[in-house]
Amino acid sequence: MNNNDKILLKNQQKILGWLCILLPILCIGFGLFGQFAGVNHPNWFHSISATYHANSKLFMISLLCMTAVYFWAYSGYDKIDNILTCISAICAFGVAAFPTGGGTNENIIGLFCLNSSISSIFHCIFAGILYVSFIVQILRFRKHGNKMTEKKKLRNKVYLICAIIMICAILCFALVDPLGLPGYGIIISECFLQIGYGVSWLVKAGCVKCLND
């Protein structure tokens, strides 16, 4: 890999990191305008997916599609990396194309004009696979690199912590309904998951100077 390829790879990693972090921030932040204006569905803040039914729908769809494009274009360190990012690309687009009903009264939703209950099933499948692919990618970050320097060991600890946070976040929002927790518990868990994943990419891209060799 020559210097130009390395620079391109680092830029792709930075963009992926920021896209994943900005998704919950922008969807929730701009969704508050719709909340104050009284135009959003009452449960719009229960998950990032539910912001599809808020004024911040633009960010939910566009950022997912942009992430899908960068995942597809990403040239990883090996074949497994490329397979994982291709899976992530397909699933990120699937999450946007098959929105969840979100408890609304809309019968036909999404790119393919499906019944909301059917679209929600596809949405959950794509989202589940997407999050699993995220965790696998982060754990594989720990294997990248030829030299196990002290800074590399430190970065590996950060990747592991982020992966643990993401796993805990998935378990938390999986337990929201069974435990009868407030609906917004899902979006809080998703924020931790997205930010943990995004931070891992930024560390991988060398954005955290104190962790670089």
Describe the structure.
A two-stranded antiparallel ribbon has the order 1-2. The protein has helices at residues 3-37, 57-73, 79-97, 116-141, 150-174, 176-179, 185-204; strands at residues 108-109, 114-115. Strand 1 and strand 2 form a beta hairpin. It has seven helices and two strands. It is an all-alpha fold. It starts with a helix and ends in a 9-residue tail after the last helix.
Offer a few descriptive terms.
single chain, 213 residues, mainly alpha, two-stranded antiparallel ribbon, 7 helices
Catalogue the unreliable spans: none
| Biggest sheet layout | 2 strands, antiparallel
Through-space gap between termini: 18 Å
Strand order in the sheet with the most strands: 1-2
H/I helix tally: 7
Radius of gyration (CA) equals 18 Å
Element-level helix/strand string: HHHEEHHHH
Q: How much strand content do the residues show?
A: under 5%
Please estimate the helix content.
Answer: 55-70%
Overall spatial form: globular
Task: Give the averaged pLDDT, no decimals.
Answer: 91
* Number of β-strand runs: 2
Structural class: mainly alpha
Describe the structure in brief.
The protein has about 210 residues and is mainly alpha-helical. About 70% of the residues lie in helices and about 0% in strands. The protein has seven helices and two strands.
How are the SSEs placed, and which strands pair?
Blueprint: H1 3-37, H2 57-73, H3 79-97, E1 108-109, E2 114-115, H4 116-141, H5 150-174, H6 176-179, H7 185-204
Antiparallel strand pairs: 1-2
